Amino acid sequence: MNHYTLRTMHIGIDTRLTYYRTGGISTYMRRLVTALESLDLENQYTVFQSRKSRESIAQRFQTVQLWTPCHHRFERVALSVELARFGLDVLHSPDFIPPLRGARHHVITVHDLTFMHYPQHLTADARSYYNDQIESAVKQAVHILADSEATKSDLVTMLHVPAEKIAVHMLGVDERFQVLGKETLEATRIQFNLPDQYILFVGTFEPRKNILGLLHAYKLLRTDLPDAPPLVLVGRRGWLFDETMQKIAELGLDKHILWRENIDDKDLPAVYNLGSILVLPSFYEGFGFPALEAMACGTVPIVSNRSSLPEVVGDVGLQFDPDDPFAIKQAMYRVLTDDTWREDQRQQGLARAKTFRWETTAQIALNTYRMAANG
């Protein structure tokens, strides 16, 4: 037990984003609420969701539906009005931007500063939403949660946030991501028409994910390893998708690239299991769930050496410069051709994945709520 006063608090958590998006920040919101429900039996919680939501992400906590939509230009004002009647001690805004006034004290989570590092990789609307408000948001928050030391460092150096105001809480991995049996895997292979072996990418098909760099690296790989397995890209289309399709045609890779946009989240564990290797060549990641999920499923990840990814994988797999297709190619080649090394890395990845627990994430968040209420 920590030294902060353990008086009963009324804590609000803004989870409206879960209606609009799946994965990423929405996964964080869902798992954080679930873990807090088991962890904190003393304080009162209100979980705020979109009025359009048909399911509650909370089982024990009170759920309230709000009218204010996410990322609306009047969101901070409208949300302040809606929240005024609740008398919250602490409001946690897990999607960066808090209302102008929603509680006595505000806690926010900053997952990454992609929009400051690589503004060219975001849509104009996304750049405007975050860039126009992030400075006031970090000043307003009494405490900030960050997904990695890399994001904490960015907050200190780019936005001049005092380091003592920031708590790092690495995220957890869902228990569904585990080594699965042959029968389940074969059924998934047939269902999605997957090859016996493949190189796997999981994520949104957008510039920040560096899919173009991956395509160039894969072209080099096929020169050195003509029988290299196909590249399977799993996710949903982002902006500039047509540019990616054009590059595939230019490189003559049409027959070796498989798109799978219809894979439900419940089937992802099997898709990871079946992959020979996971490649995550992103220019920037706030956390990088696919690398962690792959390790939990026994698939070796190779990742870019930037932002949070080195913190997630540790010494497992290989890291490379995402601007260097040759380096990406070399990493893929090593995993595909060195069976002994790959099996060793597989075992290390399984062990490392077990250390990422949502209970730990939630405990740090709860400590932060207490500091906010007593600060």
Short structural summary:
By secondary structure, the protein is of the alpha/beta class. Helix content is 42%, strand content 15%. Helix 10 (241-250) links the parallel strand 9 (231-234) and strand 10 (257-260).
Characteristic key phrases:
375 residues; alpha/beta; Rossmann fold; 2 domains; 7-stranded parallel β-sheet; 6-stranded parallel β-sheet; 16 helices; 13 strands; 42% helix; 15% strand
Structural overview:
The chain has helices spanning 17-20, 25-39, 75-83, 114-117, 124-131, 134-140, 149-159, 182-191, 211-224, 241-250, 268-274, 289-296, 309-313, 325-337, 339-353, 358-374; strands at 10-14, 44-50, 62-66, 90-93, 105-110, 143-146, 166-168, 199-202, 231-234, 257-260, 277-280, 301-304, 318-320. It is globular. The mean pLDDT is 93. The chain is of the alpha/beta class. Helix 2 crosses helix 16 (358-374), helix 9 (211-224) packs across helix 14 and helix 12 packs across helix 15. A seven-stranded parallel sheet has the order 3-2-1-4-5-6-7, with helices on both faces. It has a six-stranded parallel sheet with strand order 10-9-8-11-12-13, with helices on both faces. It has two domains: 10-172 and 357-374, Rossmann fold, CATH 3.40.50; 182-353, Glycogen Phosphorylase B (Rossmann fold), CATH 3.40.50.2000. Helix content is 42%, strand content 15%.
The CATH architecture name of the largest domain reads 3-Layer(aba) Sandwich
- Give the structural class: alpha/beta
CATH topology of the largest domain: Rossmann fold
The strand order across the widest sheet is 3-2-1-4-5-6-7
Number of domains: 2
Global shape: globular
Provide the gyration radius in Å.
Answer: 21 Å
Number of strands: 13
Helix content: 40-55%
Report the end-to-end length measured between terminal Cα atoms.
18 Å
Q: Helical segment tally?
A: 16
Biggest sheet statistics: 7 strands, parallel
The CATH class label of the largest domain is Alpha Beta
Estimate the mean pLDDT confidence: 93
Assign the CATH superfamily of the largest domain.
Glycogen Phosphorylase B
Low-confidence stretches: none
Strand coverage percent: 15-25%
Order of helices and strands: EHHEEHEEHHHEHEHEHEHEHEHEHEHHH
